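Complex 760.
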Amino acid sequence: MKRRVQVVICRTCSGAADVLDVDRLLRVASDAPYVGSAVIVNYACNKKSISEIVDDAKSKEVDRLLLVPCSKKDVSPTLFQAYVKKAKMNEFLMETVDLVGEAALPHRDDPARAQAKAEAKLLAAIARTALLEPLHKITEDMRTKNVVVIGAGVAGVEAATTAANLGMHTIIIEKSEKKLKVPGVMMTKSRVISTEGHAGNYSLSIEAGEKRETLECAAVVVASGGDWSDAERRFIDAAPDSKPLYQLDRDVSEGKTPDGTVIIIDTPDPEGARTAAQDFAWEEALDCAIEIRKKSPATEVYLLFQEMRAMGLAELAYKEAAGLGVTFVRYDAKRPPEFDSEDGNRVTVLDMAQDETLSIAFDALYYASVSPNPDNIAIADALRIPMSPSGGIRRGSIQRGPVTTLRPGIFVCGSAKFPKSEGMARLEGRAAGLLAAQFAAAGEVESGGSVAEVAPEKCSACLTCVRTCPYEAPFIGVAGKAEIAIQMCQGCGMCAGICPSKAIELHHFTDEQLLTEAAVYLRGDF
Amino acid sequence: MIIAERKPLGEIAMMVAPHEKVTVIGCRSCVAICLAGGEKEVDTLVSAMKLKSMNEGRTQYFDGFVLERQCEKEWVKEVEDKILAADVVLSMSCSLGAQTIGDLYPEKIVVPGLNTAMFGVPEEQGVWSEKCLGCGDCIIHTTGGICPIARCAKSMLNGPCGGSSNGHCEVNLEIECAWYAIYERLKLQDRLDLMDTVRPPKEWSTSHSGGRRVIVREDAKLTPHQIRGKEASL
Ligand code: SF4
Ligand code: SF4
Ligand code: SF4
Ligand code: SF4
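Predicted structure with iron/sulfur cluster bound:
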């Protein structure tokens, strides 16, 4: 192996904050060991630059790339793929280092310090890149083209219909008696209790009453929804006929607008103990408020909230609603609104903006958020996928995988993540259905690469890895030593971290690579 | 297996402070499994000690090794040169390993890096519990397979003391009453009659009370002839 690194610095990103001296970075890189070529490009992420980089890589005979772009998380993987293909390079011989997020921005008031840190990080990344080893993936055929959708709510049905329309054999698992007729979709009243296998070849154990069955599938969509059950609501006594916002949404879209005074509040539990403030369906609340004010100007609308997060285009909706006379009341979570239904419905709330206590008599109350579905815990356990702190199913990166989970082949949509408006749930359902179908249609699945591997001569068969791995990838093989099922391993590194005999190494994150990187960084040179 | 726990860093530093060259030796068996003295713990300790010694202005050298089993002479001899080169050996195995090294190299100072705690089992990742005291005369066939000697704080032989409450032990409410567990187990096995069978006082001479125990298996020992043969072949 040549171990010659090509360092590509994106001027657009690295220079963006106007803190770093990009030309000096280039000199530092050029003088570093292992570096076969160091170049600056404008917009590393555009097609033209990629061909330039590839040409440079070929002429300088480098075998690996270190990209110095914007944030690591934002670099599109397709960019890498294009590069890898053209440069005929192993995809694991590539690294990125984020000098903007880690040096320029945090030290923007002290450019000298930012520059020093950036240079040290750059050298450390070069050292690490030089130590990378080419890794390979294996492919395996999928046994079925089944797509399983958990939950028959708005998002679930949309996901199932989409997958079925794309020719997948689709099964909905629904815990309630709900019956639906969706062409091409099978439905069973049951719950998932555990999963075996791995992406592309999952086998789910489902339980229907006494009966247990195994369901083979290529992909899974979690559409468990939120907790729409109206029980237990803290103020249901105070405002007995309060309803979830989606009810209002439906009425409004059917042309029925309420009369009198309408209150929309962010969460059913104003103290925020049960639902986080960010779980508010802001956009939907704004849309409803606007519709009501337009259709029946006599109806008063109040929006009670802890924090308004009208982002993107929703900001326009906020403006429009304010223009239409919707009253916004921001309250303090520690001093939640008080409800009283003795003499008609009345709410007393301290408006933080005006610092004045309002007492509003109202006719209808809608809450714009729901608790996470309590079933999420069991579902997450069964599918071995992580949850978010607010009790929803955790999704992947917002830019790259808003409907993916951290496990390949398992997707999530709608209020299973956190409360969504009906429209959004439908949209996400479609996206998740599409991705699941696409995943299943591929017919084969890749695994391996940055996974863990046991050095059998060091393993003392202590079972620590077997007990620790969240994906049940390690097992004790015939030789009485631990082995790791490549297809199951997600490369999380927990086993490598805890193995008391240091018998496990996570490829791409080996001790040597990490320690060298740290050492070079701390010393500031090789 | 044997369960041990690493001593606090300060205590270890104090034991090795007067010495310059410190050889740290771990064990891949019991203490690796209970995450106290395997390769990883040895590496971690060596790094920590280097930092501590540097911070406290001492000039010391630390080196770490791990043996398959530190309680067996043959394995220990594999690192003989490292032991002989050291001013002090810091053993990261249970005390059996530390004493094996000490007995082999009596002129060497050997200090324990771990506190040897018990014979126990891993209950779940990160939790170990004591199950046997090594009394030398096992009786668990009469107690539903649960050892009252180790699991009862008072090693009661015939049912619980008066302090058993709601399944917990009066000595520490966090631990379960062994006799409650025995009762439940015997009930499950439909052998409650064993609760009424009186166990006579135990013969404790097989335990540590009878002095240090040495077990000899004459049939397993090498004959003088075999020993001579082995020596000749060396
Ligand atoms: S944790 Fe390490 S030593 Fe223990 S079984 Fe797994 S690989 Fe082997
Ligand atoms: S890296 Fe280890 S703990 Fe993580 S999934 Fe793979 S085998 Fe399991
Ligand atoms: S020295 Fe022997 S008894 Fe002690 S931990 Fe090692 S193998 Fe176990
Ligand atoms: S009765 Fe003695 S040998 Fe048996 S488990 Fe208890 S302490 Fe150990």
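The pocket of iron/sulfur cluster (ligand 4) is lined by residues B 132-135, 138-140, 147, 149-150 (CB under 6 Å).
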